[in-house]
Amino acid sequence: MEINSLLVFQNNIYFFILTYIILGAGIKYIDSAFDENVFNKKFAIIISPFLGILWAYVMLMNEISASILLAVLIAVIIKGKIDNIAHLLGVISIIIFGVLIIFFIDGNGFMFLPLIFLACAGIIDEVGNDVLDYNKKFHNKKRFGFMFGYYFFGRRYLMKVAILYLALLNVFPLYFLIAFILFDESYIIVDLYCKSKLA
């Protein structure tokens, strides 16, 4: 593939959709390997730096993508979700590769106000999900309010609503919302596969 073709592809909707799907599925693979013992931990450790490099590349090649993925990263770090060696290797890879791109290739940076807005939405999603997880045994699971809250925060809907809001303001193109939805859906599909293996 010629360099010009590669540059066109990396700024194409299909590039973001494909990479977001890979990132979402890869993160859940690592989670399931360490939290559920479903997948191979050694393989999870092997792929984590590659996922980190891909994450950094997708962030640094587009400022909108940088704002979304950095917001996710900030939210999970603040909430202490980097809780195994594979995730730690992934974050280290993001930092190292990101610094190399900034100094030697000049990445596009990020959009400061959208980043803060999305990071706050991401943190609230994580907090909401944790609160519902911790209190699950104290609630009647058939209550609509509890089930809706679990669904809403479990699928990062506040962050999706935040991205939709930015798209409606013409700050982000709408296809980044599609890419982020597919990021979460690929995560959920791997989670469903994990649960089927445990059943």
Descriptive notes:
The chain has 199 residues and is an all-alpha fold. It has one domain. Helices cover 79% and strands 0% of the residues. The protein has helices at 3-10, 13-36, 41-60, 63-78, 85-104, 112-134, 144-154, 157-168, 175-198. Helix 3 crosses helix 4 (63-78) and helix 8 packs antiparallel against helix 9. The protein starts with a helix and ends with a helix.
Strand content: under 5%
| Tally of structural domains | 1
Order of helices and strands: HHHHHHHHH
Number of helices: 9
Label the overall shape: globular
For the biggest sheet, the summary is: none
Rg over alpha carbons: 17 Å
Runs in which pLDDT lies below 50 for 5 or more consecutive residues are 1-9
Q: Portion of residues in helices?
A: over 70%
- Decide which structural class fits the backbone: mainly alpha
> Separation of termini?
44 Å
